[in-house]
Amino acid sequence: MNGVGTMHTMRRVICLFLVFFAWVSTGQAQQVTRDIRYATVHERQVLDVYAPAGAKKLPVVFWIHGGGWQAGEKTMVALKPKAFTEAGLVFVSTNYRLLPSVDMDTLTRDVADALGWVHKNIATYGGDPDRLLVMGHSAGGQLAALMCTDDRYVKAEGFALSLIRGCVPVDADTFDVPAIIEVAETRARVHHLPLPTNGHRQKFGNDPAKHRDFSAVTHVARDKGIPPFLIVHIAGNADTTAQARRMANVLETAGIPVKVVRRETTHEQLNDDIGAPNDSVTKELFAFVADALKR
Question: 31-176+215-294 is classed in which CATH architecture?
């Protein structure tokens, strides 16, 4: 074969490889549908769906991003879509409107609307609406826990808490909003420091009744269909550690299965490492998912 023929063959092989790679990465390994509207009021009312190719009636992970209720994006998912779809689940990541453009009521309602959309429509994307798992990081962890304990949100969307098979809040500090406000403000006072100016009181408002209402611990009770919890937090933060213990104690008292996992890492790294090979939290999470789906 002459040089021209050899070069032509090599180019053809490279082109075929690139076509095969694109076919595998976009068509077969994972199908991604972005910016699906779950409501029409605001541009942030969109979500992304990641599904294994040929998905049909697979369990669904509904993921809520963090960012202090003031920032964040549905694209902040790192390794999670790949890890979950390779494990045979559909993965959904949602946006929602943020403080201070809206209040906490509106923000939370966006998340509930997105979850309701998933229940009504995820079968079209290969998911099983009767096998949902709700998860989130940081502020998203507070929202995940609230979706899984305050049944008013899912009832308004036309389904029951019993269809949520598991809840995984990751390094959240607000399962008990009054407690985190009191701790932060007491800490400032006893050390003669200025009170927080962009803390939880400012974010959740000044109404103590609202503080209780946005606290997952307020809504935990027996026989509501509240799913099992896997509460994940970093070891080096006293607030998330205390809040994890508080939430776990309330769940245990109500007879709801719960496991608390702590890891020596940072708030951001804990989230980004979910889905990584040999990550200890990932192993715990997938073991929890497997067990939750058996129930």
Answer: 3-Layer(aba) Sandwich (3.40)
